[in-house]
Design goal:
Keywords: DNA-binding, Sigma factor, Transcription, Transcription regulation. This protein has 161 residues and is mainly alpha-helical. The protein is 73% helix and 0% strand. It folds into two domains: 84 residues, Rna Polymerase Sigma Factor, Chain: A, CATH 1.10.1740.10; 69 residues, Winged helix-like DNA-binding domain superfamily/Winged helix DNA-binding domain (Arc Repressor Mutant, subunit A), CATH 1.10.10.
């Protein structure tokens, strides 16, 4: 991969990569850091990456970097960082997008990642499998389970509201 191909990859994929990471972790600063780390890893490995496969390399790298950070943060949570909701506070949902966002946040990590890649980023099952190192069958199962959960969750909210 040449320097020009690297620069083209930055221009072409940085926005999509950022959106993918941001939808998963919902923190702009962390998302920016993960995208930056992904491009740094690409730069360090630029001679070994095929320019035709740079998109898959970037998304796979970002995915694994994000998972590593999530796991690391789970181990470093302190009790004083946990905030309790105020009593009497109700969740009044007026926007389906807000309900869906909350439901997606409740999904297990793997299900959330595959659903975001499929439904938000538009990847097919094979591409998702390559990015996440899952088989195509596993990807389909995780997406199915996630959609069943989302359907039940949204249905239960609408029944209450």
């Amino acid at each position: 991969m040449t320097v020009n191909e690297y620069n083209l990859a930055v221009d072409e994929y940085s926005d999509r990569l950022y959106r993918f990471v941001l939808k998963s972790i919902r923190d702009t600063h962390k998302a920016e850091d993960i995208v930056q780390d992904s491009y740094e890893k690409l730069w360090k490995n630029v001679e070994n990456v095929n320019a035709a496969k740079v998109k898959a390399y970037l998304f796979t790298t970002a995915y694994h970097t994000m998972i590593d950070r999530i796991r690391k943060e789970k181990h470093s949570v302190y009790a004083d960082d946990i905030t309790m909701p105020e009593q009497g506070q109700e969740n009044n949902y007026t926007d389906l997008a807000e309900v869906l966002r909350e439901a997606v946040d409740k999904l297990p990590e793997v299900q959330r990642m595959v659903v975001l890649l499929r439904d938000y980023e538009g990847y097919n099952y094979k591409e998702i499998g390559e990015l996440t190192h899952l088989s195509e069958a596993q990807v389909k199962v995780y997406i199915y389970r996630a959609r069943v959960f989302l359907k039940k969750y949204i249905g239960s909210i609408e029944a209450v509201a």
